[in-house]
Amino acid sequence: MSSTSAAARLHLTIDGRQIEVEAGATVAAALVLAEAGGTRLSVSGQPRAALCGMGVCQECRVTIDGRAHALACQTLCREGQIVLTHNQAIKAIKR
Ligand code: FES
């Protein structure tokens, strides 16, 4: 019998891309793994990304399972989660 066990893995979709992460990872960490290239756009159209990692700056807002403005740094990944950054959210609005 092994004394170690494989860490639980979760699967989520970020901007249409399938990502696998360890259980306990935040959506902000998954965005980095997915090379999402940012979270949202500022009011002047500048790309933004997670900055503080502790729920203060609000720069990590994304759409998670249809809920807009969710803080990626304060949200744990869940199996089957669907995350949209500004790139995909803007495309969805234009459809
Ligand atoms: S990174 Fe600052 S609130 Fe999420």
TrEMBL record:
Name-wise, this protein is Ferredoxin
Residue stretches making up the 2Fe-2S ferredoxin-type domain: 8-89
The UniProt entry, under Pfam families, shows: Fer2_4 (PF13510)
From which source organism is this entry? Answer: Paraburkholderia ginsengiterrae
Oxidoreductase listed as a keyword: yes
Per UniProt, the keywords (alphabetical) are:
Oxidoreductase
Q: Taxonomically, which superkingdom?
A: Bacteria
Sections of the chain in a coiled coil? none
Tell me which SUPFAM superfamilies the record gives.
2Fe-2S ferredoxin-like (SSF54292)
InterPro entries recorded: 2Fe-2S-bd_N, 2Fe-2S_ferredoxin-like_sf, 2Fe-2S_ferredoxin-type
